[in-house]
Amino acid sequence: MKEYAVLIDSTYCTACNTCAYRCIQEFRYHTQAAKGLFRTFVAANDEGIYHKRCMHCLEPECVKQCPVNALTKTEYGPVLYSIDTCIGCQICVKVCPFGIPQFDEATKKIVKCSLCAQRVGNGKEPACVEACPTGALQFGEYKAMMAKAKDLAAKRKLTLYGMQEAGGTHLFVLTEGDPVKAGYPAVAKRAVKMKALPADGLVRVPVVAGLVLGGLKKLSDRKESIASEKD
Amino acid sequence: MIRINSNITFRMTGFRKLLMLFSGIFFVLVLYRFAVGLSITNLSDAWPWGLWTVIDVKLGIALAAGGFTTAGIYYILGIKKIESVVKPALLTAWLGYCMVALGLLVDLGRWYGFWHPIVSWGHHSVMFELYMCVLLYTVVLTAEFAPIFFDGIGFKRTAKFFVGLTGFLVIAGIVLSTMHQSSLGSMYVLMAGRLDQLWWTMALPILYFSSAVAVGPAVVTCESALSGKTYKHEWDNEAMPFLAKWSGYVLSFYFVVRIIDLIVRGQLGRLFTTFDAQTFMCLLELVIGSVLPLFFFWSYNLSGKFMDKKMTVRNAIFIILGVVLNRTNVVITGMWKSAGTGYFPSTQEILITIGLTSFGILVYLFIAENFGVFTPHGAEDEDSSVRSGVGASRVPSA
Amino acid sequence: MAEEKKLSRRDFLKVVGVAGAAASMSTFPFRNLSAQAPFGKHPQEQAPYIVKKKVAQVCARACEADCAYYVVVGVDPVTGLERALTLEGRPEDPVARGKFCIKGMSFVDSLYDPDRLLVTLKRTKPKKGTDNDPGWVTVKTDDAVNEIIAELKKYKPSEILMASPGDPYTNKLAKSLGTTRSDQRTECFGTHYYINCLTITNPPNKYYSSTYTPSHHIAGYDFDKAKYQVWFGFDSYSKAGKAGMLNHWSEGKKNNCKIVMFNPVKTSMADAFATEYYSIKPGTDLAVALAMINVIVANKKYNTAFLKKYSDAAALVDTKTKLTLKTKEGALMAWCSQHRRAEPIDTCHAPVLDGGPFKVDTVEAKPVLQLLKDATKTNTPEWAAQITDVPADVIRKTALGFAAAAPYSFVPTYKRDAAGPNYANSWRLRHAISILNTLSGSIDHEGGVILLHGVKIPWLEDISAPVKPYPEQPKEPVDFRNQFPVTDDIYRNKDFSAPGHYGMVGWGLYNTDRAKVVFFRNPHRGLFAMIQPQMAEAALEKMKLVVDWNLYLDDLGYWCDYVIAAPHQFEEGKLDVRLYFPKWPCFVGGSPVQKTTGDQIGWGGLAVKLGMGLAPQYWTTDGSGDPKKKVPLNVGDVALKEAGAAKDSAEFMQKGGFWINKKAYENYKTLGEIGYGRPNGRVRMFIDEFSKVNHEPLPIWAERWHKTKDDYKFSLLITRAPWNMHADPNFINNPVLKKMTEKSFMDCVWIHPDAAKEIGVNEGDMVILENNPEYMKQVPRPVKAKVHLTKRVTRNDCVLTFHGMGHRAKNLKVASNNYGYRDGDLIPQKDPSIVKKYDPTGMGWVEDVYVRIRKA
Question: What average pLDDT score do residues C642-656 get?
Fold first, then answer.
């Protein structure tokens, strides 16, 4: 399967939130949305337009920090969430640099964009992209979208957000001014790379520590046995 | 007085009745919370973690550090003079972790999935590490404590079996503790950009771990002083000064790292140039938790004065308060600005925390009174090695 | 000793063994006991609902664009029931081009709104008002209609007011009863509609259709192909909720169309579509438009060929009477430079555009363009800069850029924001806009103002003429439209669907006893969101009978004796032309998504019942009143057959409900067919009708009506959230949209942070907005609202309010529950004696208000 990405050209966006409502109808989460839990929401802030939605990071912190793999990164782009494994610890809510996952108390579910994985699988665009009246939202192959985003940024002197933020994402945002002023979180930038999740250092540490401590204990036991021998 | 059988009894006092009331409320509320979800709390997406995380999890784990530190000092480093505190420390730790586990469970949005980490390993997750360590360490502590329990109910053979495991258990306990004590810190390393710079540092795991190692013995000290009053055992003039010294040195290390870190990241100046809730709380934390106890410790230590009970307990209290303040600051004070909204726990949250603590104290009292946790030092009977596992690796001199 | 050592070694080995096991776990398959789902198996890769069918529909009443789309019907996973779930686009529709908006989608959910009115209600307790229990009883709709007919028979036609837009049924009903019809489009479309009539569309013309959209103007804009546009407040936030236009603006932007926007508020529309944005002092747009005319005319940058052939620029005007000279046949005259005499304008080969005065018989005459030059002589960009706070060079540059791009340049106007910003001087602005579009020659030209052509949906009278003339309309209607001869002439004699004076209806109901009965056809419009509802409320208390036909029981209902249940727009069949993007002749149709679920009655059916009950002679083909000989209503069938689209509506819908004739747009052809002087129709710049009522026939500068005084210094600006309409419960009773409104601060009033500092309010404070009692003399009602500080309001002298909230009907659980405020309370009903001094159309005016703001 190909790898996909969404391009948001916010210079074409009027914050009409048609995307947001289409999303709600696609996933039937009206009750959640009425409480303010949106998978995507567009704010017309003073300094520009801000799409608050999952960036589908290349190396998602939420996936890394999920203790039970309820969040997974797919090869074709989206970060998916499985209600079956989630334990509701909400570490994803805490660690996401973009402040995206939200926990819905009533359904005990994390509310987060899935990039319409079910539509992508059927060759359709995500619902929000299909509905966007101005074409500000575009969907396509990751590489092609990246090239397009870079091209537009250069040609029209726009700022590209999502390229290096948090090590790169599957969402490219073009803004006229500073994206952070428009509302996008100031996130540490890292060069784009797509490597596997870090090796299981956490498991190896205790092994070494155990061995060292074991040695120490042996030493102290020995010291004592010598002492008792002396007795 | 409640009498279960000839051996097992529980004395009733007004205070204990109050604790029972709170425990009762706790169980009702927990059941209610399990049924209806987290909506009874003031937790939100801006504050997914609040009071329960601070007290039931973070403080619980830090304060229960006495278990692995004393066990480590006793078994690994072979400092045998602290023997009298090992058993009570293990009891506290065991209870502490049982409560932490319960606390974690209560804090989980989908608590009924608590077993998922066992089958679906998010092995790169700090949270996973925390869960697994807490889970395993609770098992380890249970096993460490098992001899006391089985001995108490008269299952000598079973008790003996567990005594045999002591060496392994102690080492596993230390490894697991090291991991999750520091990973509690790592969890907030992840809050880069959101946790106030006064607390956020890459050194958080080291700070968390070292402060836990310092506070563990301090808790044991306080506990010993308290239980000494209740159970009329004497102040151990060998063990306690040692623990005080231990805490003093480790805390010195902690404080040096903390201050250097603040200097390196250019935050120390802010403490004295700006005045807001964050700097105030940070100063309070540093003064109570580090400056005062270190001042007393070093002035005694350098002048070679003997650390008496009063000084030891006072210092221990300072250190504990310091850790309480530190953990509260990291979870609440330091996150206040970035959260955008305020947070104050709901009545239910507070009642659950109080209730959980009350229940813990009750269980502690019950066990302490029925399972021979406190054996006056230097007066152990022949069977003590079997009963507690303490001294198990030591061949009875007789 | 040996034993002890062994023990410790065993310990050690144990540790090593376990540690080794732990290390190996990092690659152990048991790491993920629950394996990751293969593609397509993840729960989130499963379709969330099952689609059963897609029903063709056309949006109606949500905005002027009227997008065609499909309503997707499927199985709701939550309930397991079949229901309408969402919309899907129709790419072939030239308006929507596969898009739809948030409001369209909200209609899907409002089908199932638990607060919808499914039965007809009758009042049993006399005390009216939202705070009183009406003692509603449910009655069968048929019985209610019969009771209402019996009641209506007791009153004279002049005592009855039909408060309804001019759809074919309302028109026939009001005409056949001889009652006044008046509607709320005064504020929305009024100025725009009448100036459009008086300059271009010249009703009735061959394309005037009885479409579902009750606006009946026939001009749209070719945003796709335009090169230069000037927007006077056209960039309202509400525009963001119009997918049928957004996609065209987007297309225009891709084609590098330049758009210059003037607005005191920098909206998200400006973010997306403004090439240049300029903050302007509220109520002064007219000065910029006049200065643009000044620059274009003075520098002769106008489209001479167009002006000569397709406009009245050369038409001679008597300088004394300010009336155009006409031949006996009524044709305009022009001064021929060759023959040096006045000739009929169509046959004159060398008409002069400027100079004069020329002596024609006994009178001195000048061509219209020369008069325009004279009229705007002092309106230089420097003059306008003083008034508007827009730099003079910006105005000059804009005027020249606009002229250079002709005929691919225009100033768009649709409704409120159009002929408004909506002030007492806005009829002149709208007139100036029409003149600018004439100077550029963009009217009826690709890339400019495009006119509806090639299709017509007839009126009921077109397919079945009444057997005898309709009775006279009341001499003294309650909305005082008779005081405005220019618009009254159009309403009485040319287009009965023309907007009425809703802005005076409340005044008339309250201050006169002309009306005793009001019949509201108020399909989820929330009429009480309109201007000064408190006056209408007070007036309705004394009415003998008040009836409302509505999809909801809204706050108006609390003053009614009967509220008749109406069907949802998706429960009705429809036929529509592409009125607002009429590039090609096109029909789109809609089928009912479901049958009405309760005891509702459609408007057509209700109108026929009332007509048969009250004026049967006009509702039967032979005037007999015989129920078997009812007049035919199938205007859609006739239209479709005429165009060759289908033999009738049923067949049309079977074929998919879509027909288009995609021929190339023929520039200036339709203008000839419909304009003034047809069949060689022209655009008019000079409006004789205004001269006759002592107003200027060409636009001149005029201040706004309302003046600042002391603390009453905040100019009231009105917009609305993209997803709301006039307190329409379809949207404001939707909890999701409410949340969006709150998240966007659109339930607040917006002021600039500096203005807030001055009056000492902070973000989120509650404030009171009050009218100057000099301007709102009767039943004032201050508004309490939350304040939002934002630099999107670019000036300190204005306050932006959001229209369409503040519902008071307690039965609407979402809408009435502490949701926003009602801007209309701050807009005075208009005293006709004042209005006619300033404005011969009497339309609009809603933003011509200054308020005081203080902390609550």
Answer: 95
Nearest to A14 among C32, C269, C737 (CB): C269
Is A34 within 8 Å of C16 when comparing Cβ atoms? no
Q: CB distance C739–A14 less than 8 Å? A: no
Name the neighbours of C, counting chains with at least 3 Cβ pairs within 8 A: A, B
Best CA proximity match to C439, nearest among C308, C627, C565: C308
Comparing CB atoms, the residue among B109, B178, B394 nearest residue A103 is: B109
pTM here is 0.89
Q: How far is B7 from chain A (nearest CA, A)?
A: 36
Task: Give me the pLDDT at residue C60, please.
Answer: 83
- The answer to whether the Cα torsion of C60, C62, C68, C74 is positive or negative is negative
Interface confidence, given as ipTM, is 0.93
Give per-residue pLDDT as tens, A150-187.
999 999 999 999 998 988 999 999 999 999 999 999 98
HSE, side-chain direction, 13 A CA sphere, residue C551: 25
Cβ atoms of B98 and B84 within 8 Å: the answer is no
- Residue B100 maps to a domain: yes
Residue range(s) defining the domain that contains residue B186 = 15-375
What does the pLDDT look like over C437-461, one tens digit per residue? 999 999 999 999 999 999 999 999 9
Element (H, E) at C521: strand C517-521
The proportion of chain C whose per-residue pLDDT surpasses 70, expressed as a percent, equals: 93
d(CA B50, CA C466) in angstroms, rounded, equals 76
Show the tokens assigned to A197. Answer: 């999740």
**Pairing relationship of beta strands C160-163 and C517-521 according to DSSP bridges:** parallel
Task: State the CATH number of the domain containing residue B239.
Answer: 1.20.1630.10
Size of interface A-B (CB pairs under 8 A): 142
Q: For residues C495 and C472, what is the distance between their CA atoms, to the nearest angstrom?
A: 15
Among chain A residues, the shortest Cα distance to B168 is held by A214
How close A204 gets to chain C, by Cα (Å)? 6
CB atoms within 10 A of CB A166: 20
The interface residues of chain A toward chain B in range 117-156, judged by CB-CB distance below 8 A, are: none
For range A51-60, the mean pLDDT? 95
Domain assignment of residue B5, yes or no: no
Task: Find chain C residues with C-beta within 8 A of A109's C-beta.
Answer: none
Q: Please, what's the b/e burial string for C473-508 (b: 16 or more CB within 10 A of its CB; e: otherwise)? A: bbeebbbbbbbbebbbebbeebbbbbbbbbbbbbbb
A132 contacts on C by Cβ (under 8 Å): 99
Comparing CA positions, the residue from B32, B66, B15 lying closest to residue B181 is: B66
Report CB contact under 8 Å: C31, B167: no
- Tell me, yes or no, whether B90 lies in a domain: yes
Q: Chain A contact for C8, CB < 8 A?
A: yes
- A229: Cα within 13 Å, side-chain hemisphere: 10
CATH domain A4-182 topology: Alpha-Beta Plaits (3.30.70)
Report yes or no on B385 lying in a domain. no
What are the tokens at B294? 């270190």
- The beta-carbon neighbor of C15 closest among A82, A85, A214 is A214
3-state secondary structure of B382: coil
C-alpha gyration radius of chain C: 30
Q: Judge contact between C190 and C499, C-beta under 8 A.
A: yes
Considering CB atoms only, which of B119, B172, B395 is closest to C4? B395
Distance (Å, rounded) from C-alpha C551 to C-alpha A15? 29
Report the number of distinct structural domains present in chain B: 1
Distance CA C772, CA C852 (A): 7
pLDDT digits (tens, 9 = 90+) for C327-337: 999 999 999 99
Give the pair of three-digit tokens for residue C682. Answer: 């022209």
Can you say how many angstroms the Cα of residue C643 is from the centroid of all Cα atoms in its chain?
Answer: 28
* Chain C contact set for B393 (CB, 8 A): 4, 7-8
